[in-house]
Every structure is written in structure tokens, then in C-alpha cells.
Write a structure and sequence with these properties.
heterodimer; A: alpha+beta; two-stranded antiparallel ribbon; B: alpha/beta; OB fold (Dihydrolipoamide Acetyltransferase, E2P); 3 domains; five-stranded parallel beta sheet; 13 strands
């Protein structure tokens, strides 16, 4: 499966919310859509949560890209 | 011997006269780079003109400034026509500019237009080729100088919007010899190694020459061939480079590019929470509606008084039976009356009635009624029937 795409997940969640709000689904469908929606919401939360602040600089060393921490203050 | 000093004013006036006598200094064309440019509120422009080794102060009075076909900026290479004279108060000589042109601007403009037209015809600016900027990129690749305000602005704006943003800086020169090749190479490497979800190519403001790297074909093609979406943020809002046209999105400034690439995380969290609440409420509402429907259903008579229908049917049945009984009785009565009528009729016609009046019936031995004298002869035995009995007799 494709790596979780935040935008798609969020869009699906919105779609489910609209479907549920329409009230046209049967109770069974509503419950299963709700469960799906909660899964998507958790997925979005996980994507947000797994992000971690990192600012790096890519340096070319011996034809290879090396990633090092970057701080713009020390360059002042 | 007495000293005969002159005043400073006298000296400066003297020097000024010397300058003014010089034909050459009265009408001179100078080229150089503008620095310390100040557009004074009085309408006069003050700046310094310099080259690698030297500088000279310059003023252009507001009488001449309306004729300029560009707004001078620091770093611009220009040609200035004017006179050189002395400002006595400060004891400085300076250029009094009458006209100013951007140097080499004609050539660069023509080149820019030519390349722009060529790439446009090739379809490099096609909207259909432009990729969407990801809504929430995990990692942002920034191609710019590793010193200066641009990267600092991008980092500041990005981390303010999302404190947990992942930024990879790929340092590249943004002007001068070889800069375009290095930028193109950097785009290629970022793509080949999939080092980011979106790229920002950024540079601060500058003259057309300064931004020229971003008008080079090699950079334009590298942007076009990039599979990673690219936001171009070169110069100020008013500067348009070829890179801006080819890239998937043009941001007016580097800070704006960061704003586009990095979503406000609190907004997203709110949106997510809101969606979560929406589906929770919707389900709750659905269950509530279903419960009400169930309750309404259960108040139906068939559930509250299930025997009602049966009882109703019983009553109906009884009524029908009764109706049937009544109609049969009427029929019987009718028939009875009918019968009595006939019996009476029959009674009047009965021969027995005649017998009571003194008649009698004669029958032969075979039991047949003798109705004529011709049917009887002497010695025949007959039976006489009276109302109250029979007697045998013989004809004589």
C-alpha cells in the first residue's frame, strides 16, 4: 500500500462525516462508516504525531549526500 | 611675514569654481553599481556609485527623477549622465545626475524574452504539467544559500507554522558563475534520491543580473523534469523569473513559499478534531433517531393490544351469524304462510268435502272411479265410498 497520504486520509474522513450527517445510511452502515472514520482520524493523528522537528543540511562528500544537522544561528 | 589664511568656505568655493570650469566634468558619463540608495521624501535621490575599488556620492534631484524608466535599487549596475561638482557645505565632490540607465539591461531583457518565448512554445509552462503541492509534506527540501536571510526566514516561518517540520537545506549558490549548473544538479539529486516531498527554490531580491541564474535554460529544464513538486520563490513580489513560470507554484517571497509548503499545524489539528466530532455526533444522532423510531413502532396497537384484532373478528363473526339466523327465520315464516294458503285451497277442492254433502264415490273392483253408467253393467261388484267409510254393493 502507498504510504499514508495525509490529504487523502483527511478527505476520506470528511467524506464519511458528510455521508453520516446526511442520515441516509442504515444503522449498520452508519456504525461501520463511523468505525472507518475513527480509524482514519487515528491515522491522521499518527501522521501528525510521528513528525519530529529536524533541520538538516545536505552536503556532498565524495560524491555522496551526507545529511548533517543545520543551525542557521551559528552561521550568522 | 603675516599669515593670510582663507576660510574653509573660501577654499571650497574656490575648488568648486575649478570643477565648474572643467568642460569634461560638466558633462560626464559614468558607469557603476548603486549602493546606499535613498529615495528621500523630498523627491531627490541620494546614492553612491561604486566599482571594485572606488566610490563616489551621487544625487539626482526631483527635476530629473520622473524621466527614469526604472526604480534604482542597491546592487544595480547603471550608467549615469551628469556633472561632477562640489558640495561646499560638506566639502565633498559628487555627481549631479541628470539621467540614468540600467547597464546592459537591453541585452538581458531581450535574452529573457527570447528564452521565455521559446520555453513557452515548447510547453514548459503548461498548466497541465504542474504538480499539486502536497497538503502536508513530511519533508521540505530547500535549495538556497546556506547563509543569509532567505533560509533563516524559511526556517522561521516553517517552524512557527509547524514546530515539528522536517527541513533539508541543499546549499547552492544563487548567483554568479556556475550557480545555474549547481542548482540544476541539486534538483536532480533531490529527485534521484527522493530526499523531500516538495522543493523550495529560493533567493532574496536583487537586480536582474543578480536573479539571472533563475532565468537560465538549464535551471528551467531541471525544474520541468523534476518529479518532486517545486515552489519557486525568487526575488521580490515584483520579480518574475523563468523559474517562476516553469515551477509548479510561484511564491512572491521565500517566506510566502514556506507558508505555502508548511500547513498551520494547529489549523489541521482543529480540522481533524472537528471531523472526528462530526462523525461522533452523526452516529449519536442516527442511533437516537433509530431509538425514537423503535419507540414509536412499539406504541403501535398491534404491540400494545395484540388480541384487539381477534376480538374484533369475533364480534364481526357473531354479528354475521345473527344476521344469517334472522334471514333464515324470515324465509321459513314466508314458506309457512305460502303452504297454509295452498292447504286451504287444496282443502276446498278435496272430494271429501263433497262426500260430506251426501255424495259418494263408486269404484269398480280394480279401484277405478266409475264416472259413467256405460262403464258399469249388471252384477258388477262395486265399492261405495262415503265420507265416513266404504260399503260393498252389487249392481242390479
Amino acid at each position: 500500500m502507498k504510504d499514508a497520504n495525509f490529504e487523502e486520509t483527511m478527505e476520506n474522513l470528511e467524506k464519511i462525516a458528510t455521508e453520516l450527517e446526511s442520515g441516509e445510511l442504515s444503522l449498520e452502515e452508519s456504525v461501520s462508516k463511523f468505525e472507518e472514520g475513527m480509524k482514519l482520524s487515528k491515522k491522521c493523528n499518527d501522521i501528525i504525531g510521528e513528525a519530529e522537528k529536524k533541520i538538516t543540511i545536505l552536503l556532498q562528500k565524495n560524491n555522496k549526500i551526507v545529511e548533517e544537522e543545520f543551525s542557521c544561528e551559528e552561521k550568522q | 611675514m603675516t599669515y593670510q589664511p582663507i576660510s574653509v568656505t573660501e577654499l571650497n568655493t574656490y575648488i568648486k569654481e575649478k570643477f565648474n570650469e572643467d568642460e569634461y566634468l560638466n558633462n560626464v558619463l559614468i558607469k557603476g553599481e548603486i549602493s546606499n540608495f535613498k529615495n528621500h521624501y523630498t523627491g531627490h535621490m541620494y546614492f553612491t556609485l561604486k566599482d571594485e575599488n572606488s566610490l563616489i556620492k551621487c544625487v539626482m534631484f526631483k527635476t530629473y527623477t520622473p524621466h527614469l524608466d526604472f526604480m534604482p535599487k542597491d546592487g544595480m549596475k547603471v550608467m549615469v549622465l551628469g556633472s561632477v561638482s562640489v558640495y561646499e557645505r560638506d566639502g565633498v565632490y559628487q555627481i549631479y545626475a541628470k539621467a540614468m540607465k540600467q547597464e546592459g539591461i537591453g541585452d538581458l531583457h531581450a535574452e529573457y524574452e527570447k528564452l521565455k518565448q521559446k520555453l513557452e512554445q515548447e510547453g514548459l509552462f503548461e498548466k497541465s504539467h504542474k504538480k499539486d503541492i502536497p497538503y502536508m509534506p513530511k519533508c521540505i527540501g530547500v535549495l538556497t544559500s546556506n547563509t543569509g536571510a532567505v533560509i533563516r526566514d524559511i526556517i522561521n516561518v516553517s517552524t512557527r507554522r509547524n514546530p515539528n517540520i522536517y527541513i533539508k537545506l541543499f546549499p547552492v549558490p544563487v548567483q554568479g558563475q556556475g550557480a545555474s549548473e549547481k542548482i540544476a544538479k541539486a534538483i536532480e539529486i533531490m529527485n534521484k534520491e527522493k530526499l523531500a516531498d516538495v522543493l523550495i527554490i529560493a533567493r532574496g531580491g536583487g537586480s536582474l543580473e543578480d536573479l539571472w541564474t533563475f532565468n537560465e535554460e538549464i535551471v528551467a529544464r531541471a525544474i520541468y523534469n523534476s518529479e518532486l513538486p517545486i515552489i519557486s520563490a525568487v526575488g521580490h513580489e515584483t520579480d518574475f523569473t523563468i523559474s517562476d513560470f516553469v515551477s509548479d507554484l510561484r511564491a512572491p517571497t521565500p517566506s510566502a513559499a514556506a507558508e505555502i509548503a508548511v500547513p498551520e499545524i494547529s489549523e489541521i489539528q482543529n480540522k481533524l478534531e472537528n471531523n472526528k466530532r462530526r462523525i461522533q455526533n452523526a452516529l449519536r444522532k442516527k442511533i437516537e433517531i433509530m431509538r425514537l423510531r423503535y419507540e414509536k413502532c412499539m406504541t403501535n396497537k398491534s404491540f400494545t393490544d395484540p388480541l384487539e384484532k381477534v376480538n374484533k373478528s369475533y364480534m364481526l363473526l357473531d354479528k354475521e351469524v345473527k344476521r344469517l339466523e334472522t334471514s333464515i327465520n324470515i324465509k321459513i315464516k314466508e314458506k309457512k304462510t305460502y303452504m297454509v294458503q295452498w292447504i286451504t285451497k287444496l282443502d276446498t277442492l278435496s272430494p271429501l268435502k263433497t262426500l260430506t254433502r251426501g255424495f259418494s264415490i263408486v269404484t269398480n273392483q280394480d279401484g277405478k272411479v266409475i264416472t259413467s253408467v256405460n262403464k258399469i253393467k249388471k252384477s258388477d261388484k262395486v265399492t261405495l265410498r262415503f265420507v265416513d267409510g266404504e260399503k260393498k254393493a252389487e249392481i242390479i
